[in-house]
Write a structure and sequence with these properties.
2% of the residues are buried. The chain contains six helices and no strands. It has helices spanning 2-6, 12-19, 32-36, 38-53, 58-79, 82-102. By secondary structure, the chain is mostly helical.
């Protein structure tokens, strides 16, 4: 979610064009209150996470960190499956270019 807030919204148009979709992706569309000041919104989420986690015991914090590392590893693994990703990326790039020129 943070990645989408930080830069994912810039991915909406290229993703739509690459996939040949007729309209913007709702996944990359945020409420006006968030769009008005994303930095403040993100900082408020960080503050809330820190506030909630203050009461956690060390073991729980360690478990959460390990789970996050596992999630990031799985995410990285998806992008290292080159056999299928590379041709699909090429097709997506062509569609994106065509969409930008003719879209």
């Amino acid at each position: 979610y943070f990645a989408d807030l930080f830069g994912g919204s810039m991915q909406g148009l290229p993703t739509r064009l690459a996939l040949g979709l007729p309209k913007d992706l709702q996944f990359y569309t945020f409420p006006p209150s968030v769009e008005a000041d994303k930095r403040a919104y993100i900082e408020s989420i960080y503050a809330k996470i820190n506030e909630v986690s203050e009461g956690f015991e060390r073991q729980k914090k360690t478990s959460i960190v390990q789970e996050a590392r596992t999630a990031f590893k799985h995410n990285a693994d998806v992008y290292t499956e080159r056999a299928l990703l590379l041709p699909a990326a090429g097709v997506g790039a062509v569609r994106c270019g065509v969409g930008l020129v003719y879209g």
